[in-house]
Amino acid sequence: MITTGAKLWYAIALLAFVAAGVYFVATSGEEYGAIVLAFAGVAAAVLGTTATVVRDGDVAAPAEGATVTEVPHPHALPALWPALSAVGVALTVIGFAAGNAFLYAGLALLGVVLVEWMVQAWAERASSDPGANQGLRNRIMFPLEIPALAVIGFAVVVLAFSRVLLALPQTGSSVVAILIAALVLSIAAILANRPQLSSSLISGIVVLGVIALLGGGIIGAVAGEREFHHYGDDHADVESDADVVISASSATGFDQEVVTLDADTDVTIVFENHDDETVQHNVHIQGLDDAVTEIIPGGNAATVLINAPPGEHTFICDVHPTTMQGTLVAQEPAADDPHGTP
Q1: What DSSP string runs through 70-135?
Q2: Which strand (E) or helix (H) includes residue 325?
Q3: CA distance 271 to 245
């Protein structure tokens, strides 16, 4: 026999399936929303089947003539499930309207709330002993809740920490990472050497750390990530038009000590700075008018068009003129090759 609770879930499942079909037809075959509604129908059907199996958590009636002892139920704090359900619905609606990750977060939260709420309602009616009911509920849910909470907590910490580091400048993020690591190590050492500290103090330290990390993560997410220079993406078109490429880094100076090109010919030189964004370089071909690129930070490229007379010309970095030098050899092109290829 189908129980009252199961009938409710089956009705929700039927409505979800009908809504999925109507949505699919009304949107001329848009699958995204139809799939979401169909999955909601499947989830409701599963919950209805579960409610049927457990008989809505009804406690068996005592045998006729048996003595029933009333056990007073302590006043329990109200469950958080209604409030969390409202949050899940709000996230789902926002995500469905905006087409972003809030949809999946809302659906996941609603699924967790439904399972938790159903198990709690069943456990509270399993017997007349509230302590036994709570123990029954914990035996069922703790093996699922503890690993899930650990994974979620770890993910939240990593995400918040990453938002903070990505919002800061490169040097600042390195300093903050080192300071936080030192702070965590110092607190761990203090706690290890002072075991008499009260649990409330330790809990307060942990809570303050979590609040600070979450607050910093939210601020970092709002501020956005710092600008990253992706050389391969930003300068692919520039490279394709280059006749000569000169690259440099602080570790090697100019990667090419000698560069050969055609004399008395317009040549496009692309200069690549392979250092990080805090180190600036350029290339300056001495003795030639306007044969100098702008000074650029690492991860960028600059171009210059030159026309060099035959001979050897020294090129330097104006920022590091004594440590970064090279030689440009301008030679007459072969008569049968306009590009001067031997």
Answers
A1: --PPPPPPPPSHHHHHHHHHHHHHHHHHHTSTHHHHHHHHHHHHHHHHHHHHHHHTS-S-HHHHHH
A2: strand 325-331
A3: 6
For 270-294, write each residue's pLDDT tens digit.
Answer: 999 998 888 899 999 998 888 999 9
Q: In this structure, are residues 107 and 37 in contact, taking their beta carbons and an 8 Å threshold?
A: no
Phi, psi of 292 (to 5 degrees): -145, 135
pLDDT digits (tens, 9 = 90+) for 45-81: 887 788 787 765 555 555 566 565 555 554 444 457 7
Q: pLDDT by residue (tens digit) across 99-125? A: 666 778 778 888 888 888 888 888 888
List Cα–Cα distances, 74 to 82, 134, 149, 331, in angstroms: 21, 12, 28, 96
Per-residue confidence (pLDDT) for residue 302, from 0 to 100: 92
- Using DSSP, state whether 284 is helix, strand or coil: strand
Q: What is the pLDDT of residue 316?
A: 94
Determine the straight-line distance between the first and last CA of the chain, rounded to whole angstroms. 92
How far, in whole angstroms, is CA 182 from its chain's centroid? 25
In whole angstroms, what is the distance from residue 1 CA to residue 20 CA? 28
Q: Rounded to whole angstroms, how far apart are CA atoms 314 and 308?
A: 12
d(CA 159, CA 154): 9
- CA trace torsion 67, 68, 69, 72 (10° rounding): -170
- Secondary structure of residue 272 in the 3-state scheme: strand
Tokens of 152: 């979620």
